[in-house]
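To assess whether ligand presence alters the predicted conformation, the chain was also submitted together with calcium ion. Input:
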Amino acid sequence: MQRKIIIDCDPGQDDALMLFLAFASPEELDILGVCAVTGNVPLEKTKRNICILSDIVGNKNVPMFAGCDKPLETEGATAEYVHGVDGIDGIDIFDPVTKLEPKGAVEFIIETLMSAADSEITLVPTGPLTNIATAILREPAILPKIGEIVLMGGALREGGNVTPSAEFNIYVDPHAAKIVFECGRPIAAFGLDVTHQVFTTSQVLDRISKIDNPVAKASYGLLSFFGRYDAEKYGTEGAPLHDPCTIAYLLNPELFELKPCNIRVETESQLTLGHTAVDFWGSTGLPANANWAHRVDRDGFFDLLVERLSCF
Ligand code: RIB
Ligand code: CA
Protein backbone atom coordinates (compact mmCIF):
# COMPACT_ATOMS: atom_id res chain seq x y z
CA MET A 1 0.00 0.00 0.00
CA GLN A 2 1.57 3.31 -1.07
CA ARG A 3 2.00 5.98 1.59
CA LYS A 4 0.98 9.48 0.43
CA ILE A 5 3.71 11.96 1.29
CA ILE A 6 4.49 15.66 0.89
CA ILE A 7 8.23 16.45 0.94
CA ASP A 8 9.48 19.83 2.21
CA CYS A 9 13.22 20.46 1.83
CA ASP A 10 16.14 22.83 1.36
CA PRO A 11 18.55 21.15 -1.12
CA GLY A 12 21.29 20.62 0.11
CA GLN A 13 23.21 17.57 -1.03
CA ASP A 14 21.64 15.37 1.64
CA ASP A 15 18.18 16.63 0.69
CA ALA A 16 19.06 15.60 -2.87
CA LEU A 17 19.88 12.03 -1.81
CA MET A 18 16.62 12.01 0.20
CA LEU A 19 14.71 12.98 -2.97
CA PHE A 20 16.55 10.36 -5.04
CA LEU A 21 15.65 7.68 -2.49
CA ALA A 22 12.00 8.80 -2.47
CA PHE A 23 11.69 8.91 -6.27
CA ALA A 24 13.33 5.47 -6.47
CA SER A 25 10.52 4.00 -4.36
CA PRO A 26 7.19 4.37 -6.23
CA GLU A 27 5.96 1.02 -4.87
CA GLU A 28 6.00 2.34 -1.34
CA LEU A 29 5.64 6.12 -1.74
CA ASP A 30 3.12 8.31 -3.56
CA ILE A 31 4.87 11.70 -3.62
CA LEU A 32 2.08 14.28 -3.87
CA GLY A 33 4.44 17.24 -4.15
CA VAL A 34 7.89 18.59 -3.31
CA CYS A 35 8.21 21.97 -1.57
CA ALA A 36 11.26 24.20 -1.15
CA VAL A 37 12.09 26.41 1.83
CA THR A 38 14.95 28.74 2.71
CA GLY A 39 17.53 26.74 4.62
CA ASN A 40 20.94 25.53 3.48
CA VAL A 41 20.77 28.25 0.82
CA PRO A 42 18.12 30.93 0.20
CA LEU A 43 14.77 30.01 -1.39
CA GLU A 44 15.94 31.49 -4.71
CA LYS A 45 18.36 28.56 -4.91
CA THR A 46 16.38 25.81 -3.13
CA LYS A 47 13.34 26.34 -5.40
CA ARG A 48 15.62 26.02 -8.45
CA ASN A 49 17.39 23.03 -6.93
CA ILE A 50 14.23 20.96 -6.47
CA CYS A 51 13.54 21.47 -10.20
CA ILE A 52 17.08 20.46 -11.16
CA LEU A 53 16.79 17.33 -8.99
CA SER A 54 13.37 16.64 -10.51
CA ASP A 55 15.00 16.63 -13.97
CA ILE A 56 17.81 14.34 -12.79
CA VAL A 57 15.36 11.67 -11.57
CA GLY A 58 13.29 12.05 -14.76
CA ASN A 59 10.23 13.27 -12.85
CA LYS A 60 7.31 14.15 -15.11
CA ASN A 61 4.32 14.19 -12.78
CA VAL A 62 5.19 15.23 -9.22
CA PRO A 63 4.65 19.01 -8.85
CA MET A 64 7.28 21.35 -7.37
CA PHE A 65 6.43 24.35 -5.15
CA ALA A 66 8.29 27.33 -3.68
CA GLY A 67 7.57 28.06 -0.02
CA CYS A 68 8.65 30.59 2.60
CA ASP A 69 11.76 32.67 2.00
CA LYS A 70 12.44 33.57 5.64
CA PRO A 71 11.83 32.13 9.11
CA LEU A 72 8.80 33.10 11.20
CA GLU A 73 10.64 35.41 13.59
CA THR A 74 14.42 34.95 13.53
CA GLU A 75 17.01 36.22 11.07
CA GLY A 76 17.81 32.59 10.30
CA ALA A 77 21.08 31.40 8.79
CA THR A 78 22.25 29.65 5.65
CA ALA A 79 25.00 27.05 5.21
CA GLU A 80 26.89 27.77 2.01
CA TYR A 81 30.04 26.88 3.97
CA VAL A 82 28.76 23.28 4.04
CA HIS A 83 26.75 22.95 0.83
CA GLY A 84 28.46 25.46 -1.48
CA VAL A 85 27.03 28.65 -2.93
CA ASP A 86 24.51 26.75 -5.07
CA GLY A 87 23.46 24.38 -2.29
CA ILE A 88 23.95 21.32 -4.50
CA ASP A 89 27.56 21.87 -5.41
CA GLY A 90 29.20 18.72 -6.72
CA ILE A 91 27.05 18.58 -9.87
CA ASP A 92 26.73 20.93 -12.85
CA ILE A 93 24.00 23.51 -12.30
CA PHE A 94 21.68 23.81 -15.31
CA ASP A 95 18.44 25.49 -16.28
CA PRO A 96 15.86 22.80 -15.45
CA VAL A 97 13.00 21.66 -17.69
CA THR A 98 10.87 21.09 -14.59
CA LYS A 99 9.08 24.31 -13.69
CA LEU A 100 7.64 25.41 -10.36
CA GLU A 101 3.87 25.45 -9.95
CA PRO A 102 2.39 28.97 -9.76
CA LYS A 103 0.79 28.07 -6.42
CA GLY A 104 2.88 28.55 -3.28
CA ALA A 105 3.99 25.60 -1.14
CA VAL A 106 1.93 26.62 1.90
CA GLU A 107 -1.22 26.92 -0.22
CA PHE A 108 -0.46 23.50 -1.77
CA ILE A 109 0.08 21.89 1.65
CA ILE A 110 -3.18 23.32 3.01
CA GLU A 111 -5.27 22.47 -0.07
CA THR A 112 -3.89 18.93 -0.31
CA LEU A 113 -4.42 18.19 3.37
CA MET A 114 -7.90 19.74 3.47
CA SER A 115 -9.01 17.46 0.64
CA ALA A 116 -7.54 14.35 2.28
CA ALA A 117 -9.05 11.92 4.77
CA ASP A 118 -7.96 12.03 8.41
CA SER A 119 -4.39 10.81 8.93
CA GLU A 120 -4.05 10.14 5.19
CA ILE A 121 -0.93 12.15 4.47
CA THR A 122 2.62 12.00 5.85
CA LEU A 123 4.71 15.17 5.88
CA VAL A 124 8.46 14.73 5.34
CA PRO A 125 10.27 17.99 6.17
CA THR A 126 14.08 17.91 5.93
CA GLY A 127 14.79 21.62 6.22
CA PRO A 128 13.68 24.38 8.57
CA LEU A 129 10.01 23.89 9.47
CA THR A 130 8.80 27.30 8.26
CA ASN A 131 6.44 26.00 5.52
CA ILE A 132 4.86 23.38 7.81
CA ALA A 133 4.35 25.79 10.71
CA THR A 134 2.96 28.50 8.43
CA ALA A 135 0.41 26.03 7.03
CA ILE A 136 -0.64 25.02 10.57
CA LEU A 137 -0.97 28.66 11.66
CA ARG A 138 -2.94 29.60 8.54
CA GLU A 139 -5.29 26.59 8.65
CA PRO A 140 -5.27 24.58 11.91
CA ALA A 141 -7.98 22.34 10.42
CA ILE A 142 -5.24 20.54 8.48
CA LEU A 143 -3.93 18.92 11.67
CA PRO A 144 -6.21 15.82 11.79
CA LYS A 145 -5.33 15.13 8.14
CA ILE A 146 -1.65 14.65 9.01
CA GLY A 147 -0.95 10.97 9.66
CA GLU A 148 2.67 11.51 10.70
CA ILE A 149 5.42 14.12 10.47
CA VAL A 150 8.74 12.41 9.68
CA LEU A 151 11.32 15.15 10.10
CA MET A 152 15.07 15.60 10.11
CA GLY A 153 16.05 17.91 12.94
CA GLY A 154 17.26 18.27 16.50
CA ALA A 155 20.09 16.92 18.59
CA LEU A 156 20.62 15.57 22.09
CA ARG A 157 23.78 13.55 22.70
CA GLU A 158 25.56 14.83 19.59
CA GLY A 159 25.24 18.48 20.60
CA GLY A 160 24.56 21.07 17.92
CA ASN A 161 26.08 21.47 14.45
CA VAL A 162 25.40 25.18 14.06
CA THR A 163 25.82 26.24 17.72
CA PRO A 164 27.05 24.10 20.63
CA SER A 165 23.43 23.20 21.44
CA ALA A 166 21.34 23.52 18.26
CA GLU A 167 20.97 21.55 15.05
CA PHE A 168 20.66 23.65 11.86
CA ASN A 169 17.03 22.98 10.79
CA ILE A 170 15.69 23.78 14.26
CA TYR A 171 18.08 26.70 14.82
CA VAL A 172 17.10 28.47 11.59
CA ASP A 173 13.44 28.59 12.59
CA PRO A 174 12.97 27.61 16.26
CA HIS A 175 9.49 29.19 16.44
CA ALA A 176 8.34 27.03 13.53
CA ALA A 177 9.86 23.97 15.18
CA LYS A 178 8.06 24.74 18.46
CA ILE A 179 4.74 24.91 16.59
CA VAL A 180 5.39 21.59 14.89
CA PHE A 181 6.54 19.75 18.03
CA GLU A 182 3.49 21.08 19.90
CA CYS A 183 0.98 20.36 17.11
CA GLY A 184 -0.24 17.10 18.66
CA ARG A 185 0.25 14.91 15.58
CA PRO A 186 2.52 11.82 15.50
CA ILE A 187 6.14 12.81 14.91
CA ALA A 188 9.21 10.72 14.08
CA ALA A 189 12.27 12.91 14.62
CA PHE A 190 15.65 12.05 13.05
CA GLY A 191 18.25 14.25 14.69
CA LEU A 192 22.01 14.27 14.74
CA ASP A 193 22.06 11.47 17.32
CA VAL A 194 21.07 9.07 14.56
CA THR A 195 22.29 10.84 11.43
CA HIS A 196 25.81 10.97 12.83
CA GLN A 197 25.78 7.17 12.64
CA VAL A 198 25.59 7.18 8.83
CA PHE A 199 28.70 8.88 7.50
CA THR A 200 29.35 8.55 3.77
CA THR A 201 32.67 6.72 3.87
CA SER A 202 34.90 6.06 0.85
CA GLN A 203 33.52 2.50 0.85
CA VAL A 204 29.99 3.91 0.36
CA LEU A 205 31.16 6.30 -2.35
CA ASP A 206 32.97 3.46 -4.06
CA ARG A 207 29.74 1.38 -4.14
CA ILE A 208 27.84 4.32 -5.62
CA SER A 209 30.59 4.99 -8.19
CA LYS A 210 29.98 1.52 -9.63
CA ILE A 211 26.31 2.25 -10.44
CA ASP A 212 25.92 3.27 -14.08
CA ASN A 213 23.02 5.71 -14.23
CA PRO A 214 22.69 9.53 -14.12
CA VAL A 215 21.20 9.62 -10.62
CA ALA A 216 24.03 7.57 -9.12
CA LYS A 217 26.59 9.69 -10.95
CA ALA A 218 24.98 12.85 -9.57
CA SER A 219 24.93 11.26 -6.11
CA TYR A 220 28.64 10.54 -6.32
CA GLY A 221 29.42 14.15 -7.22
CA LEU A 222 27.12 15.56 -4.56
CA LEU A 223 28.45 13.33 -1.79
CA SER A 224 32.08 13.88 -2.78
CA PHE A 225 31.54 17.62 -2.32
CA PHE A 226 29.33 17.23 0.78
CA GLY A 227 31.88 15.03 2.54
CA ARG A 228 34.65 17.56 2.71
CA TYR A 229 33.33 20.05 5.35
CA ASP A 230 32.04 17.66 8.03
CA ALA A 231 35.00 15.33 7.56
CA GLU A 232 37.31 18.19 8.47
CA LYS A 233 35.08 19.44 11.29
CA TYR A 234 34.49 16.06 12.92
CA GLY A 235 37.72 14.39 11.84
CA THR A 236 35.63 11.67 10.26
CA GLU A 237 35.57 10.05 6.83
CA GLY A 238 32.70 11.52 4.82
CA ALA A 239 29.65 13.43 6.00
CA PRO A 240 26.53 12.43 7.96
CA LEU A 241 23.75 11.56 5.53
CA HIS A 242 21.02 13.36 7.46
CA ASP A 243 17.92 13.72 5.29
CA PRO A 244 17.71 10.26 3.64
CA CYS A 245 17.11 8.81 7.14
CA THR A 246 13.50 10.07 6.89
CA ILE A 247 12.73 8.21 3.67
CA ALA A 248 14.70 5.13 4.75
CA TYR A 249 12.47 5.00 7.84
CA LEU A 250 9.35 5.09 5.66
CA LEU A 251 10.75 2.32 3.46
CA ASN A 252 12.06 0.11 6.27
CA PRO A 253 11.31 1.27 9.83
CA GLU A 254 13.12 -1.82 11.16
CA LEU A 255 16.40 -0.10 10.32
CA PHE A 256 15.88 2.36 13.17
CA GLU A 257 15.30 2.40 16.90
CA LEU A 258 13.05 5.20 18.13
CA LYS A 259 11.96 6.08 21.65
CA PRO A 260 8.84 8.07 22.64
CA CYS A 261 10.15 11.28 24.23
CA ASN A 262 8.96 14.70 25.20
CA ILE A 263 10.80 17.20 22.99
CA ARG A 264 10.66 20.93 23.60
CA VAL A 265 12.37 23.68 21.59
CA GLU A 266 14.24 26.68 23.04
CA THR A 267 12.95 29.88 21.41
CA GLU A 268 14.07 32.55 23.90
CA SER A 269 17.70 32.09 24.99
CA GLN A 270 20.29 33.49 22.60
CA LEU A 271 22.82 31.04 24.03
CA THR A 272 20.76 27.93 23.33
CA LEU A 273 18.28 29.13 20.69
CA GLY A 274 16.98 26.15 18.70
CA HIS A 275 18.05 23.57 21.29
CA THR A 276 15.83 20.47 21.31
CA ALA A 277 15.36 19.39 24.92
CA VAL A 278 14.84 15.67 24.25
CA ASP A 279 13.65 14.11 27.50
CA PHE A 280 15.21 10.72 26.72
CA TRP A 281 15.08 9.47 30.33
CA GLY A 282 11.63 10.87 31.19
CA SER A 283 12.98 13.23 33.84
CA THR A 284 10.29 15.87 33.24
CA GLY A 285 7.31 13.55 33.53
CA LEU A 286 5.89 15.36 30.52
CA PRO A 287 4.05 13.24 27.94
CA ALA A 288 5.95 12.12 24.86
CA ASN A 289 5.15 14.24 21.79
CA ALA A 290 7.56 12.55 19.37
CA ASN A 291 9.44 9.35 18.64
CA TRP A 292 13.15 10.17 18.81
CA ALA A 293 15.44 8.10 16.56
CA HIS A 294 18.61 7.13 18.39
CA ARG A 295 19.99 4.06 16.63
CA VAL A 296 20.25 2.87 13.00
CA ASP A 297 21.44 -0.29 11.27
CA ARG A 298 24.17 1.50 9.32
CA ASP A 299 24.88 -1.33 6.87
CA GLY A 300 21.19 -1.88 6.23
CA PHE A 301 20.71 1.84 5.60
CA PHE A 302 23.45 2.05 2.98
CA ASP A 303 22.42 -1.27 1.41
CA LEU A 304 18.94 0.22 0.92
CA LEU A 305 20.34 3.47 -0.49
CA VAL A 306 22.68 1.72 -2.94
CA GLU A 307 19.97 -0.74 -3.98
CA ARG A 308 17.48 2.05 -4.72
CA LEU A 309 20.04 4.24 -6.52
CA SER A 310 20.58 1.27 -8.83
CA CYS A 311 16.88 1.34 -9.77
CA PHE A 312 17.06 4.42 -12.00
O1 RIB B 1 21.58 19.75 10.39
C1 RIB B 1 21.45 19.03 9.18
C2 RIB B 1 20.24 19.48 8.43
O2 RIB B 1 20.37 20.86 8.07
C3 RIB B 1 20.07 18.74 7.09
O3 RIB B 1 18.71 18.68 6.76
C4 RIB B 1 20.78 19.63 6.12
O4 RIB B 1 20.31 19.46 4.78
C5 RIB B 1 20.39 20.98 6.64
O5 RIB B 1 19.09 21.28 6.15
CA1 CA C 1 17.98 19.59 4.62
